[in-house]
Amino acid sequence: MNRSWRSEIGWFALILPAFLLMTVFYIAPILQVLAISFTEPQPGLGNYERLFTSESIHRVIVTTLRICLITTVLALLLGYAMSYTIALASPRARRWWILAVLVPLWISVLVRAFAWVTLLRRQGLVNNTLLEAGIIAEPLALVWNEFGIVVGMVHYMVPYAVLPMLASMREIDPRLLSAARGLGASRNAVFARVFLPLSLPGLIAAGVLVFIFSLGFYITPAILGGGKTLMVAEWIGLQILDLIRWGLGTMMATMLVVSILTTLAIFSRIVDLRRIFGSGA
Amino acid sequence: MEGLHKPGPFARSLAWAVALYLVLPISIVLPVSLTDQRFLSLPQDGLSLRHYVNLFASSEWLDSIGQSLLIAVASTVIAVVAGTLCAIGCWRIARRSTDLVRAMMLLPIIIPSIVYAVGLYRYFAKLDLLDNFWGVAIAHGVTGIPYVVITVSTALAAFDPRLEQAARGMGANLVQTLRWVILPRIAPGIVSGAIFAFIHSWDELVIVLFIASRDVFTLPRRIWDGINENLDPTMAAVAVLMVAFTLLLLLADMALRKRHDS
C-alpha cells in the first residue's frame, strides 16, 4: 500500500516541472492581460464599454470576422478536394500528396508572406508577367489589401484544413463506396450520399480549427495587409506598442481568447476535440 | 482499396491546383535569390550568387542566425524535458485531473501568441527578463511544450502498459523504469516533438516582437524588419536557407519514423 502510494507520488512528480513552468510563465502572463483590461486606465468596465460605442473597434471586428469566414470557407473547399483525392489515392501517391501538405505547413510563415509579396506587389512577378503578355494595361492591386490577406491566409490554413479531414476520411471503409457503385449509384451519388455524410465530422473539426487559428492571426495579415486592412491581432499590437493604450489592447485580447474558447466549447459538443488536436487532447 | 473507387476528374484537377498553390509560391524564392539584379526580380542575364555572398558577409545576419540557433536549442531542451515527463505522468496516472493537465498543456496552440506576447511584455518587465536570452528561451520553451506533449502522448498510446507494470513488478524503481523501459520505446515520439519544438522557436516572431528589442535580435525579427523596410534579394537568399533548413529537419523526422516502422 505504502509502496503504491509512493509510486503515485513519483508519477505526479513527473508532471510537476511542466505544470510549474506553464503556471508561472504562461498562465500568469495571460491572467495579467485579463486583469489589466479591468484596471487600466481606471478600474471598471470602461474598456468593455468601448466595445459597444467605438466605431473603429466595430470596424476591426467586422473586418476580422469577414476575412476569417472567407478564409475558412475557401480553405475548407480547397482542403476538401485535396483530402478527398489523397484519401482515395494509392499508398505510393498518397505519400507524395501528404508531403505537398506537410512541407508548406512547416515552412516559416514569414518566408511564405515574403514569397507572396514578391509575387503580388505592383512590380511583382505576377503583375510584370501579365503586363508583358499584354493582358493588363495597369498593374493590379493584388497585395496590401484584403485580397492579399486572404490569399496568404488561405495558403497558410489549407494544410490545417486537410489534416483533420484526411484523418476522418481515412476511417471511411472504402468497401462502402464500391458497394454503392456496385448497387448502381453514379460517382456523384456515391460522393453525395455516402462519402460526404461520413466525412462531415472531419469537415466540421477542420472548420473550427481554421476559424480559431484565423481569428488571432498576426504576421500574414500584418505583412500582406500593409497596415491598411487591420485585423484584431494587429490592432492589439498597435494599441500596446505604438499607442500605449494597454486597457483597450488587453480588452480586445481578452475578447479574442473568450471568443476562441467559446467556439471550442460549443463545437466540443458536436465533434470530438481529439480530432482537432490529435490524441494529445 | 485501389481501383475500386477513384476521385473524378474534377476533384483530381482541383487537388492538383491546390498542391501547386501550396508549393509553387514558396519555390519562387529560389530563382529570385539567384537574380543578378539589385532588386527583387527573376534573373535577367544569368544566375548570380552575390546575394548569398552579401548574406554571409553580413555580421548582422550571421549574428541573428547564431542567436536564433542558440535560443532554439535552449528552448527545445526546456520543452522536451518538461513535455516528455508530463506526457508520461499523465499517461500513467490517467485520471480526470490529468486530462485537465493535458488540456492546459495545449493552451499555447489554442490561444493566439499575440495575447501571450502582450501579457509577457508586462510580466517580463517586472522580472527583468525583457530583451534577455533566457527570457526568450523560456517563452519559446513553454510554448513549445504542446508539440512535445502531443507527439509523446501519441507514442505512448501505442505502448503496452503491461511492460511498465512488469518492470515495476520485478523491482525496478521509477527512474530505472523510465530509463530502461519507457523512454527507449517512445524515443521516436520524443525526437519528433523535439524537431517540432525546435522549428517552433526557430520561426517564432510575435513573442519576440514584444519581449526583445536590441540585444536579442533573432532571425525572424531581422526578416520582419527586412520585409517592412527594404525588400532586397538578400531576403530571398535568407528565405531559401530557411526553407532548406526546415526541409532537412522534416526529412530527418520522416527517415526516423520510417526506420521505426520497419
How is this structure best described in words?
The complex is a heterodimer of chains A (281) and B (262). In chain A, helix 7 (146-169) packs antiparallel against helix 10 (219-225) and helix 8 (174-182) runs antiparallel to helix 9 (187-215). Chain A has 281 residues and is an all-alpha fold. Chain A has 2 domains: 1-39; 54-276, MetI-like fold (Orthogonal Bundle), CATH 1.10.3720. In chain A, 79% of the residues lie in helices and 0% in strands. The radius of gyration of chain B is 22 Å and the shape is globular. Chain B starts with 8 loop residues before the first helix and ends with a helix. The interface between A and B is large, with 93 and 96 residues.
Keywords:
heterodimer, A: 281 residues, mainly alpha, MetI-like fold, 2 domains, 13 helices, 0% strand, B: 262 residues
Estimated share of beta-strand residues of chain B: under 5%
Rg of chain A (CA only): 23 Å
Helix/strand class of chain A? mainly alpha
Helical amount of chain A:
over 70%
- Tell me the strand percentage band of chain A: under 5%
**What is the mean pLDDT of chain B?**
90
Low-confidence stretches of chain B: none
The largest β sheet of chain B comes out as: none
Helix run count of chain A: 13
Alpha-beta content class of chain B: mainly alpha
The chain-level mean pLDDT of chain A equals 89
Structural domain count of chain A: 2
Q: What's the level 1 CATH class of the largest domain in chain A?
A: Mainly Alpha
Radius of gyration of chain B in whole Å, from Cα? 22 Å
Helix proportion of residues of chain B, in percent? over 70%
Can you tell me the overall shape of chain A? globular
Number-wise, the strands of chain A total 0
Oligomer: heterodimer
Let me know the largest β-sheet of chain A: none
- Low-confidence stretches of chain A are none
SS elements, strand count of chain B: 0
